[in-house]
Design a protein that fits this description.
Elements lengths: L6 H4 L16 H18 L2 H15 L8 E3 L2 E8 L2 E9 L1 H4 L7 E5 H8 L4 E7 L10 E7 L6 E7 L4 E2 L5 E5 L2 E6 L2 E5 L15 E6 L8 E5 L6 E7 L6 E9 L2 E8 L2 E4 L7 E5 L2 E5 L4 E3 L2 E3 L4 E5 H5 L6 E4 L5 E8 L4 E7 L2 E8 L5 E4 L8 E6 L10 E8 L2 E9 L3 E7 L9 E9 L5 E9 L10 E4 L14 H8 L10 E5 L9 H5 L7 H16 L8 E6 L1 H12 L6 E5 L18 H4 L5 H7 L4 H4 L8 E7 L8 H12 L5 E6 L10 H20 L3
Parallel strand pairs: 34-35, 34-36, 36-37, 37-38, 38-39
Antiparallel strand pairs: 1-2, 2-3, 3-4, 5-6, 6-7, 7-8, 7-9, 10-11, 11-12, 12-13, 14-15, 15-16, 16-17, 18-19, 19-22, 20-21, 22-23, 24-25, 25-26, 26-27, 28-29, 29-30, 30-31, 32-33, 33-35
Helix pairs in contact: 3-7, 3-15
Protein name: S9 family peptidase
Keywords: Hydrolase, Protease, Serine protease
GO cellular component, one term: cytosol
Length: 698
C-alpha cells in the first residue's frame, strides 16, 4: 500500500503554517505526534486511569457477550476477539451448539497466528461467501483483512473445508477495493489498477472481471464511472431463477445510478438519482429521498415503493406504497426474508417493526417486540434457506437493557436465543426522553440517562454526545463502556455522571427531511440543535456549563469542534475524536472529496462562504476563553485521516490556548482502535480527560 505523503500539500499555495503536518508518515511529523502523546499520557495515565481502562477492557473482552452470528448453509459464523485472541478468530458452529450455554466453535482462521506468521498486524474486515450450487455446502469465501485497521484491505480466497487460503487462488492486494463474486471462477474487482483507476474520493472508478488464474493488469473492463464520481460497484445476484448483474455508479453520498445487465449492455433503472433501490427475486424496491412525481402521482421523500421488476422495465409505474413517513415516524431500513418484507421504523426515536406480506396485498403486521425508548432491529436469518427462509433475527437493546438476541419465524412468534450480561449497575439509573427547542423553533429530541431522583440543582457532571450527519440515526443502545466509563463515576459529593444522547438534524431520526434540514448552507441547524440541548440541560437544572462536556467522532468531531469555536460558553470540556476540522482542505484529504454532497465544495467561492462558517480550524480567535479540549485520532485512519486533528491541536497550542491535549493512536483506522486493548485505551483517555476536566482535577 502506498502511504500518503506531503507532496499534494507542499505544491499548493496557502498561508496555512501547519500544512507540514499533512505528511502522515513523515519522521518529523511522527516525532511531533509522539511528543504530544507523551505529554497527554503523562497527564492522564495515572493509577486511577489504569483501573478505569482495565474495567473497560473487561467489558470489551467479556466472554459472556453475545457472539453475533451469520448463517450460511448449515453453519453459524462469528468473528470474536477477547483477551486470548487480541486480533481475533473467525469460527463457526451448528445451530444446536450455538444455542447452548457453551458453544463448540470450530476455528477457521486465527488472525493472531496469521499476523505472527506473515509479520503483518492484520485486522479482520469481513468475509464474502460464494453461494454454492443448490444442495452443495458453502466452500469458498473471500477473507478481507486490513494491515493497519484502515479502509484499504486485502482480499484472499479461503477454502472452508481445508481451513486455509487457496494456493494460487484469488488474492487482490491491499487497496480501497470494492469486490464481489461473479461466479465460482471469477470476481468483479474494483481496485487500484494504477493511474486513472481511482476516483477523486480515493475509491475505485473501474470494475474489471478477474478470472481464475488471470492477472489484474489484464482483467477485462466491465464497468466504469467518471473520475469525479464517488465509486463504482458491480454485484452479481446468484438467486436461482433470478441471476443478474447490477452495477452502481455512486455519484456522491446521496445520488447514484443503478444499471441492470441485459443483452450484453448496461440498462439504466430509471428512478430518481437520490433514490435507494434493492432487488429481491421478482421485486424492485425504491426509496426516494425527496418527493418524486411520476405519471400524475407524487410519492413523498422517505416513502417505500414496491413494484414487479419486469413490469417496471416494461414501463409500468403503478407502485405499491408500503410505507409513508409522517411527522414522527421514519423508515430506517428494510430487508427481505424469503417471502416477506421487514421494515425497521423509528417513532420519535423508538423502534417499530412491521412485517409485510406481498401475497396478501402487502398487508402489514406490527411485530410486538419493541418496548418504548429502545432500539430493535429485524433482519432475515438466511433467505437462501429452503426451510428457514422466513426466519428472522431480532436484536433488542436499550440504554439500561443489555442486548438480547431473538430468533423468530414469520407467523410463529419469536424467542430468546442469547442475552448479554450486565456490565454495570443499571438499577441505579433511569432513561428519560426530552425535547429542546432550537433557535428556529424546531423540537429536537434527546435521551438522558441519570440516577433515579436526580437532583436538578446544576451540580451533575454531564456528558452530551451527538453526530448529526449523513442521515445516520443515534438510537438507544446498551454500552457497558459508557456505564463503567461515565455513569458509575462519582464526585467526592457522590454525584454520578449523567449521559445524554442528542438526536439533532443532519441525522436520520426523522428520515430524509431531518437530514436535508442541515445540509450545506443549513449546516448551522445541526449545531444550533446541539447547543439548544446543552442550554436545555442547564435550564432544567441537570448541569451547568462548567460541568457539561461534549464528545463526538468523525462528523461528530466536526460537531463538537463547532461547539468549541462557536459555543465555548456552553461547555467545560470537549473530547473531539477522528474529526473533520479544516473544512477549507477537507475535500483534498483522505476520502474527503466524497463528502462534498454533505458539506459543500470549499473550492467554489460561493460555497466556501458558508462552509467557512462551520470550519473550526478557521474560527479560532485570540480573544476567546475556550473549554479544555482533547483532540484524538489515529495515524492509519484513511477515511478522515489524522492531519486535521494534528493541525487543530498545533494551531490552538501555537495561539497560546491553554488546556489543549492531543493523542494519536499509531494504528487503528477510522475506529481509532484495531483491537479491544486499543479501544479500551481510547475510551479511557476520553472519559478520564472529560471527568477530570469537568470536576476540576485536570
Amino acid at each position: 500500500m502506498t502511504q500518503p505523503t506531503e507532496s499534494s500539500a507542499t505544491t499548493e499555495t496557502t498561508d496555512d503554517p501547519f500544512l507540514w503536518l499533512e505528511d502522515i508518515y513523515g519522521e518529523r511529523q511522527l516525532a511531533w505526534v509522539r511528543g504530544e502523546n507523551a505529554v497527554t499520557e503523562q497527564a492522564l495515565v495515572t493509577p486511577g486511569f489504569e483501573d478505569s481502562e482495565q474495567r473497560i477492557l473487561e467489558v470489551l473482552d467479556s466472554t459472556d457477550r453475545i457472539p453475533m452470528a451469520g448463517k450460511h448453509g448449515d453453519f453459524y459464523y462469528n468473528f470474536w476477539r477477547d483477551a486470548e485472541h487480541r486480533q481475533g478468530v473467525w469460527r463457526r458452529t451448528t445451530w444446536d451448539s450455538y444455542t447452548s450455554a457453551a458453544p463448540d466453535w470450530d476455528v477457521l482462521l486465527d488472525v493472531d497466528a496469521l499476523s505472527a506468521a506473515e509479520r503483518t498486524e492484520w485486522v479482520w474486515s469481513g468475509a464474502l461467501f460464494l453461494r454454492p450450487e443448490e444442495g452443495r455446502p458453502h466452500q469458498r469465501v473471500l477473507v478481507v483483512v486490513s494491515p493497519d485497521g484502515g479502509d484499504a484491505a486485502r482480499y484472499r480466497e479461503f477454502d472452508l473445508g481445508s481451513r486455509s487460503f487457496v494456493e494460487g487462488g484469488f488474492d487482490v492486494p491491499t487497496a480501497k477495493s470494492r469486490i464481489s463474486w461473479a461466479g465460482p471462477d471469477a470476481l468483479y474487482v474494483g481496485t487500484d489498477f494504477g493511474p486513472g483507476s481511482m476516483t477523486s474520493s480515493s475509491y475505485p472508478r473501474t470494475v474489471r472481471i478477474l478470472t481464475r488464474g488471470g492477472d489484474l493488469s489484464t482483467a477485462e473492463p466491465y464497468f466504469e464511472v467518471d473520475e469525479d464520481h464517488m465509486v463504482a460497484l458491480v454485484l452479481h445476484d446468484p438467486t436461482p431463477g433470478f441471476e443478474r448483474d447490477l452495477a452502481v455508479d455512486t455519484l456522491d453520498f446521496y445520488t447514484r445510478r443503478s444499471y441492470l445487465r441485459e443483452d450484453g449492455v448496461w440498462r439504466l433503472i430509471e428512478v430518481p438519482e437520490d433514490a435507494s433501490i434493492s432487488l429481491h427475486r421478482e421485486w424492485l424496491v425504491v426509496r426516494p429521498r425527496s418527493d418524486w412525481a411520476v405519471e400524475g402521482t407524487t410519492f413523498g421523500g422517505g416513502a417505500l415503493l414496491v413494484i414487479g421488476l419486469r413490469a417496471f422495465l416494461d414501463g409500468d409505474r403503478s407502485f405499491e406504497v408500503v410505507f409513508e413517513p409522517d411527522a414522527t415516524t421514519s423508515l430506517q431500513s428494510w430487508s427481505w426474508t424469503r417471502n416477506h418484507l421487514l421494515l425497521n421504523l423509528l417513532h420519535d426515536v423508538s423502534s417499530e417493526i412491521r412485517i409485510l406480506d406481498p401475497s396478501d396485498g402487502w398487508k402489514a403486521e406490527l411485530l410486538d417486540a419493541c418496548p418504548p425508548l429502545h432500539s430493535v432491529d429485524a433482519y432475515a436469518v438466511d433467505d437462501e434457506d429452503d426451510l428457514a427462509g422466513d426466519d428472522y433475527w431480532l436484536i433488542a437493546t436499550g440504554f439500561l437493557t443489555p442486548s438480547t438476541l431473538y430468533r423468530g419465524t414469520i407467523g410463529g412468534g419469536h424467542s430468546v436465543v442469547k442475552a448479554s450480561p450486565s456490565s454495570f449497575d443499571e438499577d441505579l439509573f433511569t432513561v428519560e426522553q426530552h425535547f429542546a427547542v432550537s433557535s428556529d423553533g424546531t423540537r429536537v429530541p434527546y435521551f438522558q440517562i441519570a440516577t433515579h431522583g436526580l437532583r436538578l440543582d446544576g451540580n451533575n457532571p454531564t456528558l452530551l454526545s451527538g453526530y448529526g450527519g449523513f442521515e445516520h440515526s443515534m438510537t438507544p443502545a446498551y454500552s457497558g463502556v459508557i456505564g463503567r466509563g461515565w455513569l458509575e463515576r462519582t464526585t467526592p459529593e457522590g454525584r454520578h455522571g449523567v449521559y445524554v444522547l442528542a438526536n439533532i438534524r443532519g441525522g436520520g431520526e426523522y428520515g430524509p427531511r431531518w437530514h436535508h434540514a442541515a445540509l450545506h448552507a443549513d449546516r448551522h441547524r445541526a449545531y444550533e440543535d446541539f447547543a439548544a440541548i446543552a442550554a436545555d440541560l442547564v435550564e432544567r437544572g441537570v448541569t451547568r456549563p462548567a460541568l457539561l462536556g461534549c464528545t463526538g467522532r468523525s462528523n461528530g468531531g466536526l460537531l463538537v469542534g463547532n461547539m468549541l469555536t462557536t459555543y465555548p460558553q456552553l461547555f467545560g470540556a470537549i473530547s473531539c475524536g477522528v474529526p473533520l476540522l479544516d473544512m477549507r482542505r477537507y475535500s483534498k484529504l483522505s476520502a474527503g472529496y466524497s463528502w462534498i454532497a454533505e458539506y459543500g465544495d470549499p473550492d467554489k467561492p460561493e460555497e466556501w462562504e458558508y462552509v467557512r462558517t462551520f470550519s473550526p480550524y478557521h474560527l479560532l480567535r485570540d480573544d476567546v476563553e475556550y473549554p479544555k479540549t482533547l483532540i484524538w485520532t489515529a495515524t492509519s485512519d484513511d477515511r478522515v485521516g489524522p492531519v486535521q486533528a494534528r493541525k487543530m491541536a498545533a494551531r490552538m497550542k501555537e495561539m497560546g490556548i491553554g488546556d489543549v491535549w492531543f493523542h494519536e493512536a499509531l494504528e487503528g483506522g477510522h475506529a481509532g482502535a484495531a483491537d479491544n486493548r486499543q479501544a479500551a485505551r481510547m475510551h479511557a483517555l476520553s472519559f478520564e480527560f472529560l471527568w477530570r476536566a469537568l470536576t476540576g482535577f485536570l
